[in-house]
Write a structure and sequence with these properties.
heterodimer; A: mainly alpha; ABC transporter involved in vitamin B12 uptake, BtuC; B: Rossmann fold; Rossmann fold; 4-stranded parallel beta sheet; 16 helices; 43% helix
Chain lengths: 294, 479
């Protein structure tokens, strides 16, 4: 086994994992604040990926700008969805939110299919690469990781250094208490929904910085599954946990695939996925609340 | 409480996934050893009442059993006003892109049959075709339900398959149950012909032969190249294609220095690419679909891992591949069932002593454009397959002079014809396609041109490929 190659894969896993993490945080925020299980999460990632694609191919806008546009778009969509749908299911059973958000996801996918067809699209934005351990890492991928870290830093500043952030945390902890203290809970819920969906669409843009191919209406399905695993791994509702879970998942996906392949497995990727679930089970057995949730 | 509940739910799901993975692993060890899959056993169980209904339907549309040929017997008493073809097809869902392209091909061919050919010739009477179709949403359970509906409720005369190996694999047991011929244009997996199905006839060249053309072309252009790498996706079609390529490569004396299966929903090829870079392989053969084919190419270019020759199934044949990768796509080869540039013609059929049937590619194009309503959409190989399925069915009906499923199945065995899609000939024992040959296309300066076999080629195969960096600098793969 080549140690250099192993490190290359771990680095690659960390880069991809940071993007997985940011793509998962939206799921955690919506659950953390409203207890709504957004099983349509992948559809919003898909919207973000399409935003990056269309803005690049039609207007020549680089993905950094698309990230801002996509975040704003997601915020708006999330708030609208809150007032139309989530508001009505917020006090219902979890199954109700599962079905409603599943429906939203299907609607968005089929809308995308109707508008843009089911072609597999992609774009090429090349800004250079840096040599690393005998191979190369694209600057676009590195910039995706940097943007992910910057986003989580900004999110923490927002949550812990602003009044709105405090309100969000207060509503997440105790909506009744927050209401008694004079916080407009409905407005904060809407903001939480917007933030959660906005981070999912932003995640879609960042994913295209690592992988700008295979953009199509149903691309979100595997990301939904991954996001749930990552969110549970890190602790549902925990922002830092989601990010850490993303990093762990990315490293397992990349590093374990390489190790299993070196050990002679003909299908190392499947074994790595298997290992990912084994680790998830072990963590849930030891800490059912996830890594970082108290 | 809710956190714990969700955690437990996810934990239970994860345990199930692990159990299924373990079961699949051990189950896989027995794969190919014997027998039909469980699904087949389930659906071949007969339901007497339904069988009666189907028999009644068949009797109303089937010519008298004594009538076997048009010359020997008078026309039957009852001939239908139209011959209805039933179709479940993925117009949405994961297979929607290919499904739509195939559907357009089917509709264009039906239009040609009705408007130019005049209809299906049964006892001297021209009977038009009609298509009854449903969107199966790329879902296996829906394919099965809709196929059953087409047979028992809509009472269609014939069934054309849906698209994609997983979906047709789910569909075949239903048509077998009702003893309906399934004209399979959508599944290339060899699995279809290893199950003992009696009513499945294949139009596409089986998956195991997909990459063979690319191997043969490489041997011809560079007999000294020995070290190759093979990768394939873990699904029905690509597994058959990859294993077939591997077996053929060994038979041809190639040294396979790297061979791996990757997961169906892969999002990162980095671990594979680090190994490919050290493998010493000079040529790369990949059995991929769409997104994974695009991703692998992009990540190979990103990492700067070069090969003299790269052939990628399916993904690289599509226009979207070039649109996604731009000049990086230049030089990449793709084995295809058919491309609009393929040169099959009545003259070629005559020279080979084979009957020609249907429109030429040029004659087919206006019908295709009419169906899509968008002149910018070109037919893909899915379209060619769909159209060929219609043409083969028409010829089988005319050969049988019957609408009886068993007579049509027998007639398929006798077919040996050339269409714009190529030669169609069925193996009587299994129903698989044995007459059709794959063509090999290559992206050359932004155009996907046929480069192999030489007699069907539009351009000379460009070899060796420019490196990724050379392509970024503007070098093209054209002479």
């Amino acid at each position: 086994m080549d140690i250099g190659d192993l490190f290359f894969n771990i680095t690659s896993g960390l880069i991809l994992g940071s993007i997985y993490g940011i793509s998962t945080i939206g799921l955690s925020i919506i659950f953390g604040i409203m207890r709504v299980v957004n099983v349509g999460h992948g559809a919003f990632i898909m919207l973000g990926a399409y935003a990056a694609f269309w803005l690049f191919t039609i207007y020549g806008l680089i993905p950094f700008i698309s990230a801002v546009v996509s975040l704003a778009m997601g915020l708006a969509i999330g708030m609208i969805l809150f007032y139309i749908i989530m508001r009505r299911i917020i006090r219902g059973e979890e199954l109700m939110s599962l079905i409603a958000m599943y429906g939203v996801g299907i609607f968005l996918e089929e809308l995308a299919n109707y508008l843009w067809h089911a072609d597999y699209r992609g774009y090429s934005w090349y800004i250079g690469a840096i040599p690393y351990l005998g191979l190369r890492i694209q600057l676009t991928a590195i910039s995706g990781a940097i943007l992910s870290i910057a986003t989580i830093a900004a999110l923490f500043v927002f949550l812990y250094r602003t009044g709105l952030g405090s309100s969000l945390r207060a509503v997440a902890q105790d909506p009744v208490g927050a209401y008694i203290c004079g916080i407009d809970v409905q407005r904060i819920y809407a903001l939480g929904a917007g933030l959660g969906i906005g981070l999912a669409t932003l995640g879609g843009v960042l994913l295209t910085l690592y992988n700008p191919t295979g953009i199509y209406p149903y691309l979100g399905h595997p990301y939904t599954l991954k996001a749930f695993v990552i969110a549970v791994l890190g602790g549902l509702g925990s922002i830092l946990g989601a990010f850490l879970g993303g990093l762990i998942f990315g490293v397992i996906e990349s590093g374990a695939t390489y190790i299993f392949s070196q050990l002679g497995s003909p299908s190392p990727g499947s074994l790595a996925l298997f290992l990912g679930f084994v680790i998830l089970i072990l963590i849930l057995l030891i800490r059912p609340e996830g890594l970082l949730r108290r | 409480m809710r956190y714990t509940g969700i955690s437990r739910l996810i934990a239970i799901m994860a345990v199930i996934v692990v159990i299924v993975a373990i079961a699949s692993f051990f189950g896989g060890m027995y794969a190919g050893s014997s027998g039909a899959p469980q699904g087949v056993i389930t659906v071949t169980a007969t339901e007497p009442q339904r069988v009666t209904v189907v028999q009644t339907i068949i009797q109303t549309v089937t010519p008298s059993p004594q009538i076997t040929t048009p010359t020997q017997t008078p026309p039957p008493i009852v001939l239908p006003d139209k011959i209805v073809i039933g179709l479940a097809v993925p117009l949405t869902g994961a297979q929607a892109d290919a499904g739509k392209r195939g559907f357009w091909g089917i509709m264009a061919a039906v239009k040609w049959v009705n408007e130019v050919y005049g209809g299906v010739n049964l006892y001297g009477r021209k009977i038009p075709l009609e298509v009854k179709y449903y969107n199966d949403e790329s879902k296996k359970d829906l394919v099965q339900a809709l196929t059953e509906r087409l047979i028992t409720v809509d009472k269609v005369h014939f069934i054309l398959s849906t698209y994609s190996s997983p979906l047709v694999t789910a569909q075949a047991p239903i048509t077998e149950k009702y003893k309906y011929v399934l004209v399979n244009w959508g599944a290339a997996t060899d699995y279809m012909y290893e199950q003992g199905y009696k009513y499945v006839v294949g139009i596409p060249t089986p998956a195991s032969k997909y990459l063979v053309t690319a191997l043969e072309a490489l041997r011809s252009i560079d007999p000294n190249l020995k070290k190759i790498a093979i990768m394939y996706k873990d699904d029905e079609f690509n597994r058959a294609s990859g294993i077939g390529a591997s077996a053929k490569a060994k038979e041809m004396g190639y040294q396979i220095v790297y061979e791996k299966i990757y997961p169906a929903d892969i999002k990162d090829f980095t671990p594979y690419i680090t190994e490919l870079a050290r493998s010493g392989a000079e040529a790369l053969f990949v059995s991929a679909h769409y997104a994974d084919g695009q991703l692998l190419s992009k990540q190979l270019a990103d990492a700067g891992v070069n090969f003299k020759y790269i052939a990628i199934n399916v993904a690289a044949c599509l226009q979207s591949y070039y649109e996604t990768l731009g000049k990086l796509a230049d030089g990449i080869l793709c084995p295809s069932q058919w491309e609009p540039g393929t040169k099959y013609s009545p003259a070629l059929a005559r020279s080979m002593g084979i009957e020609w049937f249907g429109p030429t590619t040029e004659e087919f194009m206006p019908f295709f454009r009419n169906v899509t309503g968008d002149p910018k959409i070109l037919p893909s190989y899915h379209s060619g397959l769909g159209a060929a399925a219609v043409l083969a069915l028409v010829k089988a009906i005319e050969t049988a002079q019957s609408l009886d499923q068993d007579a049509i199945r027998q007639a398929f065995n006798k077919l040996h014809l050339m269409t714009f899609y190529g030669v169609i000939k069925i193996d009587p024992a299994t129903g698989s396609q044995v007459g059709h040959e794959m063509v090999l296309g290559q992206w050359q300066n932004g155009r996907f041109v046929i480069v192999w076999p030489q007699e069907a080629a539009e351009a000379r195969l460009y070899y060796p490929l420019p490196t990724w960096d050379e392509k970024r600098a503007g070098k093209t793969a054209s002479y």
